[in-house]
Write a structure and sequence with these properties.
Elements: E1 7-15, H1 23-42, E2 49-53, H2 55-64, H3 67-77, E3 81-83, H4 98-116, E4 122-124, H5 135-140, E5 145-149, H6 150-155, E6 167-171, E7 174-181, H7 183-188, H8 194-202, E8 208-214, H9 224-230, H10 233-243, E9 247-250, H11 252-258, H12 273-278, H13 282-298, H14 301-304, H15 316-319, H16 321-336, H17 341-350, H18 367-383, E10 390-394, E11 403-407, E12 411-416, E13 422-428, E14 433-434, E15 484-488, H19 494-498, E16 505-506, E17 513-514, E18 521-528, E19 531-540, E20 542-551, E21 556-563, E22 572-575, E23 578-581, E24 586-590, E25 593-597, E26 605-626, E27 629-654
Parallel strand pairs: 1-2, 1-8, 1-9, 2-3, 4-5, 5-7
Antiparallel strand pairs: 6-7, 10-11, 11-12, 12-13, 13-14, 15-16, 15-21, 17-18, 18-19, 19-20, 20-27, 21-27, 22-23, 22-25, 24-26, 25-26, 26-27
Helix pairs in contact: 16-18, 17-18
């Protein structure tokens, strides 16, 4: 046992860059945060700490800054640094199949053993998402301990004064240690003056003060590079720790070697408090935020904090239908594949967590992250050597209704009969792109604006005032799927569609009946007092949708096709000899053919109509919060075909 009067400071940082992130973003984070932070730590060899970097970040460093691996090795060898792992490509473990959980953890362990000759004992739990069902896999992997928030323990009824060490949890009599991270320290470091941090450390419940948080707080978050390095916060902090005779730093493993557990704990499904707010539907998230702020103003927050809980991480799969489709598509692919070699690695890359949810960072709102998921799912299927020509039907997205999949060597289409017979995914296999990867404009609770706080130091991104541009807040009535059908009256305008104000009858959220798929085709139809619509999807040289209809009034059949152009600012739409940026709106009038050319695609996407049709083109942008404020992000270009008559054929294919 160590000195009874000493505070032992267990400090760690977690660095993560999403799979598919933009190279210059990773480079900027390295130069502004990861590199200067480790340089400072190397200059203080007496400071023991822990580190976790996700697999995508390690792979970037190994390729672009290999000397950095030697720096890490030096600190590991002298006992200053302990490295933790996670799932290698940073999945939320509870969101992927058990065998993939184990495989990703083992990949991380092997990476660390190969690079630095040590076997990691601890695991950084991605987004601190704890669900009890992950415990058996963690135990099987040989992990000795994990880290979660103190909030998890408070929700389980553990008193705050006991949260100065680790606890044991168990499954089937097999145990593993869990450390509680101090939320208060997360908000103090590095945002408040060093003196304030040191005063808090003196009062921490013993024997350990536990902090583990984002490495990006030390240079990437707005204002932190100047505050932490140029204004000297980090050096002052390290010097203060070195001179404090009442405090010693320890790694988590060395702490466990000399200190018994605080007791046993069984934790509920939980993450950190902010995640509980973000995962709720927007109206409830707004009310949750109001309640928390009101309790803080009244001085009652600490009293009621253990009893205030929001949603859980998996609620994002309800909040965002696009996330649910992507997630279930990943699960579906995992079940189908023989996971070996590079096919397994591609699947694991598609499990990287960021694109499946949204909080203070862009997440699902960032098209390049979603694009990476679909690209690696297609790559996994290609590398697995499984047959690419097939038809499939079943409940892919776990909503109780069947989806249909048509696939060949060039295309893969996912159709949802229960949702207007819509096309929810169309993949071009050769470039590995889902060209229908769009995201609806929807209300988020932060669109009402949030006030910041004035405190000494630099504000956390959670405390900055944020007020969105109101003129850009437009909301879609339905997800931006394709081949969604509506009945509208003559006289509606392109502006009505752009602003989400079309009148008439939407069929997109109504079920279509469908016949068994056969010969790469799927037939479905809808009928009511308004008339009928029949459509048949065929997959051969591209995707063809054959329409027949008859209405009881003078309706126009409006068919919506939403395409995502990966490089929006350089993508163009062409009709005949006229070309227009994909980010501009236009009423093209009568139409037979148009094409979309994006610099990232090897060939244009060509769309044709056989029948009497006019075409509207409208780009759509979302407004989402980020660490810097609000981002206006291109999510796709919508094309609305206004069809007259009783028949039409609409096709999408790769051009020459």
């Amino acid at each position: 046992m160590e000195g009874d009067n000493e505070i032992l400071f267990l400090f760690g940082v977690h660095g993560h860059q999403p799979q598919g992130n933009l190279p210059w973003v990773i480079e900027g984070a390295f130069e502004r945060a990861y590199k200067p932070f480790i340089e400072a730590m190397r200059a203080h060899p007496e400071f023991a700490f822990s580190l976790h970097y996700s697999g995508p970040l390690w792979e970037w460093i190994e390729k672009e800054r290999p000397y950095f691996l030697d720096w890490i090795g030096e600190m590991v060898e002298r006992g200053q640094l302990e490295i933790q792992v996670s799932g290698f490509y940073e999945p939320v473990l509870a969101s992927i199949p058990p065998e993939d959980q184990l495989g990703q953890i083992e990949m991380s362990i092997e990476y660390v053993k190969t690079k630095w000759g040590v076997r990691p004992q601890g695991l950084w739990l991605t987004e601190r998402v704890w669900e009890p069902q992950i415990l058996p896999g963690l135990i099987e992997s040989g992990i000795r301990y994990v880290l979660v928030d103190d909030y998890h323990f408070l929700c389980a009824g553990v008193p705050q004064e006991k949260l100065g060490g680790y606890f044991l949890t168990e499954e089937g009599g097999k145990t593993m240690a869990i450390f509680p991270i101090s939320e208060r320290l997360r908000y103090l470091v590095p945002f408040r003056p060093v003196k304030q941090v040191m005063e808090y450390l003196k009062d921490c419940p013993g024997p350990g003060a536990i902090l583990y948080d984002d490495a990006e707080k030390f240079g990437v978050w707005p204002g932190t590079h100047d505050w932490v390095y140029k204004e000297g916060w980090l050096n002052r902090f390290l010097n203060a720790l070195a001179s404090a005779t009442w405090l010693k730093t320890r790694t988590f493993s060395s702490f466990m070697d000399k200190h018994p557990p605080q007791g046993r704990a069984y934790l509920p499904t939980a993450s950190y408090l902010e995640m509980g707010e973000w995962s709720l539907p927007a109206p409830q998230a707004s009310e949750f935020h109001r309640i928390v702020e009101e309790l803080k103003r009244r001085g009652d927050w600490e009293r009621y904090r253990p009893y205030i809980r929001g949603g859980i991480w998996k609620h994002f799969l309800i909040k965002y239908p696009e996330a649910n489709h992507m997630h279930k598509r990943m699960i579906w692919t995992s079940k189908r594949l023989k996971k070996k070699g590079e096919a397994k690695r591609a699947l694991y890359k598609a499990q990287c967590n960021d694109a499946y949810w949204h909080g203070i960072f862009g997440g699902i709102y960032l098209p390049h992250l979603r694009r990476s998921v679909f690209h690696h799912l297609l790559e996994a299927e290609r590398l697995s050597k499984e047959a690419l020509c097939y038809e499939w039907r079943g409940d892919m997205d776990a909503d109780g209704y069947e989806e249909l999949v048509l696939s060949n060597t060039e295309y893969l289409a996912v159709i949802k009969p229960s949702y207007g017979g819509a096309l929810v995914e169309l993949d071009l296999r050769l470039p590995g792109v889902n060209i229908t990867d769009t995201l609806a404009r929807r209300f988020e609770h932060y669109h009402r604006g949030m006030e910041g706080e004035e405190e000494e130091g630099t504000p956390s991104i959670h405390k900055r005032a944020k007020h969105p541009p109101k003129e850009d807040l437009i909301y879609d009535p339905l997800p931006r799927y394709s081949f969604l059908d509506s009945l509208i009256m003559p006289g509606e305008t392109i502006e009505d569609w752009q602003r989400g104000r079309l009148q008439g009858k939407r069929l997109g959220d109504q079920p279509y009946r469908h016949s068994p798929i056969s010969s790469s085709s799927a037939k479905m139809h809808a009928r009511g007092d308004w008339g009928f619509i029949e459509k048949v999807y065929r997959l051969k040289d591209g995707l063809l949708c054959q329409y027949k209809w008859g209405f009881s009034q003078d309706w126009l059949l409006a068919v919506e096709i939403n395409l995502h152009m990966p490089w929006a600012q350089e993508a163009r739409v062409s009709v005949g000899n006229t070309s227009l940026p994909a980010t501009e709106a236009r009423d093209w009038g009568p139409i037979e053919e148009w094409s979309c050319l994006d610099p990232s695609l090897p060939s244009p996407v060509v769309l044709k109509v056989e029948g009497e049709a006019t075409l509207w083109q409208v780009p759509f942008f979302t407004v989402s919060q980020s660490e810097g404020g609000f981002d206006r992000i291109y999510q796709g270009t919508g094309f609305l075909l206004l069809l007259r008559g009783t028949r039409a054929n609409v096709s999408i294919r790769e051009g020459e």
